[in-house]
Amino acid sequence: MFGKPCFKIGKKAFVCFFRNCMVFKLNGEYHSEALSLDGSELFDPSGKNRPMKEWVQVPFDYNEKWKIFAEKSAKYVAE
């Protein structure tokens, strides 16, 4: 996805690695939780202030949360 390593379900990406962060496609409470983490932000792969509103970039400092976010992201994309 955008030239970054990613995981997909079918042809839909649900998680990717970018600048020592994991990026997750999330909605609902998990989207809010991920964004509330210090240093997390909406994913802007172009760097041109055009963030993708469902995608949250979560820093390595929160790597213990990456698994649950990946699971929720996979479930969301698979629906």
Please tell me about this protein's structure.
This protein is α+β, with helices and mostly antiparallel strands and 79 residues long. The chain has 2 helices and 5 strands; from the N terminus they run E-E-E-H-E-E-H. It is 32% helix and 34% strand. The two termini are 20 Å apart. The model has no long low-confidence stretch (mean pLDDT 94).
Give the % helix. 25-40%
Total individual domains: 1
Number of distinct beta strands = 5
Distance between the termini: 20 Å
The spatial strand order of the largest sheet comes to 1-2-3-5-4
Key features?
single chain; 79 residues; five-stranded antiparallel β-sheet
Write the layout of secondary structure elements.
Layout: E1 6-9, E2 12-18, E3 21-25, H1 28-36, E4 41-43, E5 52-59, H2 63-78
Antiparallel strand pairs: 1-2, 2-3, 3-5, 4-5
Write a concise synopsis of the structure shown.
With 79 residues, this protein is α+β, with helices and mostly antiparallel strands.
